[in-house]
C-alpha cells in the first residue's frame, strides 16, 4: 500500500507543478483591441505604469493590433502600438480577434447609417440608442466610421461610437 500512496503523491506533485509552470509562463494574448474608449477619445500609452507617467503616444479608440509585450504591473499592461512601446490601462484592453466592434452612445433617437460618409448621403439603415454589436468594416476617417449593423453596411458618425468587444 505504501508504494501506491507514494506513486499517487508523486503524480499529484508533478501534475500540480506542470499546471503551475504553465500558468507562470502564460503572458496573455498576442494582440489586444482597445475597448470601452469613446470615438472622440484615445487610449494613453505612458512611459511608466502610472497615470502620472508621461504620454508617449495615443492609441486610437478602435485599434485592434496592439501588441502585448508580456509584462503587467498592477492594472497596467506593457504594449506596443506602431513603433511606440509603453504602458496602457489593462481595463481598456481585450484580446483581439482582428475585428473592430462598437457600441453606440450620445444620442436618444435612432442613429442613421449613411451610404457614404456625409450627412447628406442616403440613409441605408438606423440603429437604436445604446446598441452593441456593430462591426467595424474598415478604417475610420476624422468624423466617420464604416460599420455593419444587422446586415446594413454604411457610415456612422464617429462621435456616436465607442470601442467594444464580444
Explain what you see.
The model is unreliable at 1-25 (pLDDT under 50). Strands 6-5-4-1-7 form a five-stranded antiparallel β-sheet, with no helix packed on it. A five-stranded antiparallel β-sheet has the order 13-12-11-8-14, with no helix packed on it. Strands 2-3 form a two-stranded antiparallel ribbon. The N and C termini lie far apart (52 Å). 14% of the residues lie in helices and 43% in strands. It has two domains: 31-95, SH3 Domains (SH3 type barrels, Roll); 100-163, SH3 type barrels (Roll), CATH 2.30.30.40. A hairpin with a 2-residue loop joins strand 4 and strand 5. The protein contains one helix and 14 strands, in the order αββββββββββββββ. By secondary structure, the chain is mainly beta. It has one helix at residues 2-25; strands spanning 31-34, 42-46, 55-60, 66-73, 76-81, 84-89, 93-95, 100-104, 111-114, 123-127, 132-136, 144-149, 152-157, 161-163. It comes from Thiothrix unzii. This is SH3 domain-containing protein. InterPro entries: Cell_Wall_Dynamics_Protein, SH3-like_bac-type. Residues 1-24 form the signal peptide. It holds the Pfam family SH3_3.
